[in-house]
Write a structure and sequence with these properties.
mainly alpha; 2 domains
Length: 115
């Protein structure tokens, strides 16, 4: 069974709210060892908000948002290549081969200051 990206997971749930099992499954795929009961409800609400903000955006719109966030992060010191590498390490296991290739290409562009 092919891996699903966040938008596909959300569509499969037919706009259902995230639940602890969804988060536990995503954490398992990302090799995160978090105790789901320790996750604050506000964090879950923030995740739901983020999913809903991005679920209907095109790839171009997502890249534009990424460029903006990286630019802001570089200006205010909240972005680093180490953070990018950690993000990729956590997200890549949830992606299929094609998605990982796109992510790696985007990461190279970011590191070469083209984004």
């Amino acid at each position: 069974m092919p891996k699903k990206d966040l938008r596909q997971m959300k569509k499969d749930k037919k706009k259902a709210k995230l639940n602890k099992e969804d988060i536990r499954e995503a954490a398992k795929h990302a090799n995160v060892n978090a105790d789901i009961d320790d996750i604050d409800k506000r964090d879950i609400k923030n995740m739901e908000k983020t999913f809903s903000e991005y679920e209907n955006k095109s790839e171009g719109e997502l890249i534009d948002d990424l460029e903006r966030m990286i630019s802001e992060g570089k200006k205010d010191g909240t972005f680093s290549e180490e953070m990018l590498d950690a993000f990729i390490k956590n997200v890549a296991p949830m992606m299929d081969k094609s998605q990982r290739k796109k992510l790696e290409a985007i990461a190279r562009m970011i590191k070469m200051n083209k984004i």
